[in-house]
Design brief:
The structure is a homodimer. The first copy, chain A, is α/β, with parallel strands linked by helices. Chain A is built from 13 helices and 16 strands.
Chain lengths: 419, 419
């Protein structure tokens, strides 16, 4: 039987963004196992010190008095109380945010959080008006393309491109284009940005927040790569908070992606609406990961290992890949790496590329190297723009050897492509 | 700031059903801790043998080679491969269903599964027609009231009431009322039923499935209390399967409610649509609980302990509470217990009650006993019906002593209520 889907079912049963190409990537990797330099992975590395930390906290959970209660009881929809308290204490003592437990919600990963937010605040309102979810700077996280129940809801804007040095560029929000007003349900962006490694500056972030505040619009700042954990930040940045900001954290880049732990910190009225959505849609997040996270945050170990292990690991990789590109790539081709300000990817722009990103992806595959074409990273950007077909995402999770081999292979393809 | 919610946000930020009264129950219990006979709990008991099993499997996970990969990697949206295989093997070898891994989806609890299903299949379709989610027999699980993004989507039907013995009754589906046709998106019911302990017969279940099949309508059978685990079935029942059936399991009543593991088994086209919804809305379910469940199912221990520990525990409680009611309740009042066919609740009907279920709930509270009024258990039943205000849900999770004290207190209130 072919299911007769609702409008929402039709939208939500489409795989969007990177997921649409994962099938090809997985089949490619399985076709000749071990023969590939894989620079496509979105899955963060398992770093031994980090895995050891989660093992230790699991042992402690088993040895302590709370195991039965954690796995064997339903919990509050808001989240596991000790984790909520750990978050409140951390952000009050380190950032002075003055939050209470009513400002915190735990979700089963931050994707769920954006799903709740996009549909609680975006979509058709009681007056019949479509309120947009605004992505102020495109490209941004590919998964945002999946979270709105109505495809029309998502609205992304082209950035300003600054050439900041030979073969280096940086995206900046283009306030002349960006439309945040009373048709906006919420604003959403990642900082640091997956996939580009961009960090929108403190001042520009504040400018977005202030603009949204004029229209009573919440701003969800996806801080999955930000400080204090995983602290994948290689530039100056301060988390921006405020009454209309929902600061969104994830434990996926500190070694717990499998456990789906997302954390929202914001005004209690926003938090309450999202909590109710969660109660109705999924009751509550699973609790084992929450119990571990409560310990890792309150002990300070999570922030400590983020700074001493996770951040230097990826920062070293970013520097190595940048050097490899500078060494391998042809100087007379207009290639640009995005400034490496954070996260776990490099983002390569091939200006005036005489073919599409998919063509380049296929040619690079012929060199036994897999990257990810850039076009799926512009969710919500409806207009045509050549730049969308000129970028590649390169994962920093690969080994140093593979990053260097990958850069050399990409350089070989690029040299031929521009001839 | 007061959030400006979408229509969906307005619906989903309402707490429905039992959640709407949990605040009163929690405040009551906290008002004089230790002074209450609590017969309101929906949270299953932590049975020592069951907790020990999950501890053992956690130890094994820590000792084995897969810990890092389970918690430290993103997984497939469909679920953790070893769990999917364990489910396929179990249902093929014990039930002969002939399923493959493409027939299985793991969700973060079964509430999420019903949320995906209700909105993939129910709601407005491409032709602008509202397709209903039909609950064929009301009362049913209170949480179904929360899963539809549009309040109009849910449609429940009054049952037939059979008086089967003095002070005993049983609900049966009323096929004369029930409307399943091409306006139906999906059918959904729990079997055994939370809150009533009813088990719709094999023949009647097949009749619903056949009726739905004529219109290509999937039937989601919520088997959270069914065999093979938790096996909270005190009567004859066989799981009904078929091309248009989605058989839905949960690990919440086998000691893992905190970990949110739901399992759907059905036609691969339905499963695929739900999987995509999940990929977009939450990526995948958390994996620690899945990894434990894979071991517990494939070893056979989960089914074994369900039969030897979980089932007899609650069956004994049901018998004890039934005997207590027969002993304590006035014979000349038209009270009826629903036939105890499964699950973890008793369901009391006070026919011709000269007050509401809420009044009785409050009077029982004055006796320091907490039950749950029955009216939140009729989600989707829009018509007026006196029966909706004549029922109470009594949890079998209480101790034997508390069940007996509770029955005596309820009897005192009932005697006075009918004067």
């Amino acid at each position: 039987m072919q299911p007769h889907l609702s409008q929402i079912g039709q939208k939500m049963s489409q795989l969007t963004g990177v997921r649409a190409i994962m099938k090809d990537i997985i089949e490619t990797l399985q076709s000749e196992p071990g023969k590939w330099v894989n620079l496509s992975a979105g899955n963060p590395l398992i770093l031994p010190e980090i895995e050891a930390m989660w093992r230790d906290y699991t042992q402690q959970l088993l040895a302590g008095p709370h195991f039965g209660e954690v796995v064997g009881r339903y919990g509050a929809s808001q989240g596991y109380e000790p984790l909520i308290e750990a978050v409140v204490d951390w952000f009050n003592s380190h950032y002075g945010w003055g939050i209470t437990r009513r400002n915190v919600l735990i979700t089963p990963g931050s994707q769920s959080l954006y799903f709740y937010a996009a549909n609680c605040l975006g979509g058709v309102d009681a007056d019949g008006m479509l309120r947009k979810i605004v992505l102020p700077l495109s490209p941004d996280y590919t998964g945002y393309g999946g979270v709105t129940l109505n495809a029309e809801t998502l609205q992304a804007y082209k950035p300003t491109i600054d050439i900041i040095a030979p073969h280096r560029f940086k995206y900046r929000p283009d306030f002349a284009q960006m439309q945040i007003d009373d048709t906006t349900g919420a604003v959403l962006f990642s900082r640091p940005c997956n996939p580009t490694g961009n960090v929108i500056s403190d001042a520009e972030t504040q400018q977005i927040v202030d603009l949204a505040a004029q229209y009573n619009v919440p701003v969800f700042i996806d801080s999955a790569y930000a400080l204090p954990f995983p602290n994948l930040v290689f530039t100056e940045m301060t988390p921006v908070f405020g009454e209309n900001v929902v600061h969104c954290l994830s434990l996926s880049k500190v070694g717990l992606p499998g456990e789906r732990v997302g954390i929202a910190i914001g005004d209690e009225r926003n938090i309450h609406a999202l909590e109710c959505f969660q109660a109705n849609a999924s009751i509550h997040s699973s609790r084992y990961g929450q119990a571990l996270a409560a310990q890792a945050i309150s002990s300070g170990e999570l922030a400590r290992l983020s700074l001493s292990v996770i951040k230097p690991h990826y920062q070293r990789k970013a520097a190595l890949l940048t050097a490899a590109f500078d060494r391998e790539m042809p100087n007379d081709v207009p290639w640009y790496l995005h400034k490496a300000e954070g996260a776990i990817f490099a983002w390569l722009w091939l200006k005036d590329l005489p073919m599409t990103d998919w063509d380049v992806y296929r040619k690079i595959k012929q060199e036994h190297v897999i990257v990810v074409p850039g076009s799926p990273f512009f969710p919500g950007l409806k207009e045509e723009w050549a730049h969308k077909q000129q970028c590649l995402r390169i994962s920093l999770t690969a080994s140093e050897e593979d990053l260097e081999a990958g850069a050399a292979a990409i350089a070989r393809v690029v040299k031929k492509a521009y001839v």
